Amino acid sequence: MDLIRFRDPFCCAVLFASAAFSFACTSTSTTATAPSASKCQVSATAAPLQFGAGGGTGTLSISAARECGWTLGVPSWVSVNGSNAGYGDASLSYNIANNPAGAVRTAEIVVVDQHLRLTQAAAACTYSLSRSGDGIGAAGGSLRFEVATLTGCAWTATTTASWLSVTASSGSSSASIGVSVAANGGAARTGAVVVAGKSYSVSQDAAVTSPPAPAPPSPTPSPAPGPSPAPATVSLSGALSSLSGSCPAIRFTVSARLIVSDKNTDYSHGGCKDISNGDTVKVDGTTQSDGTVLATRIEITKNEK
Questions:
Q1: Average pLDDT, the chain
Q2: Of 142, 217, 226, 275, which one's alpha carbon is 20 to 30 angstroms from that of 291?
Q3: What is the pLDDT of residue 45?
Q4: What does pTM read for this prediction?
Q5: In this model, does residue 19 exceed pLDDT 50?
Q6: How far apart are CA 108 and CA 111, in angstroms?
Q7: How far apart are the first and last CA of the chain?
Q8: What's the mean pLDDT in 252-280?
Q9: Residue 259 forms beta bridges with which residues?
């Protein structure tokens, strides 16, 4: 008896040499093969593709044969309600988040080798300042305030006074702005820094000055001199002493009064040259402002020696 082995591991046959008997066995099998990538055509559409800054919802439609697979990718600000991979036809919704920036943004939904471009409008730009203003002394110095806005929102900072300057004159997002204030040499003053139409006010004190020296006190006015007293007529007699001068203007003392004479003085019992110390005289005259007596008449009585 010969044994014959077939190549098929699941089928064998044994043939006996005897003519009376024979035996044989056979088997069959089926294999399923997926279509190649070149045979799978996947198409995708999305609507809408343009959105406002507030976001919204759209629909993604995928068309493919039942046995053809697909995958999709989306940006971080797009979310898909469903799986990001599958087979055959599919209809998925997607959500667009609010745009937090003041600039237009774009991205793509990618399905296999198809790119669906999304565009979202910029958010409306708003601006606010941390404070409405500050005050500073006459010496000047530095101040600081903040401007708040969305990324992508441009602004410029300008000053309304030459004695103010800023460290940041422009930007496109929130920022801190420094203000330099010059020293003030005069009266109190006010200026401002204007950012995107918002005003930050700066008030500066007046310069400090020394008080003026007090004026010297006014002198006490002297009383106006009164009218000179009218000359008084006097009559004196006694021994003459302290004779001085020369005629006709001589001076001497009688009874402790100073007597003066002039060319108008009248003499009795002698003349001006006959007077000497020790003589007894009688003087008639008038008092002067200096206290002397101007003699109008002198009577001489000679003393015996």
A1: 83
A2: 275
A3: 94
A4: 0.49
A5: no
A6: 10
A7: 223
A8: 87
A9: 252, 293
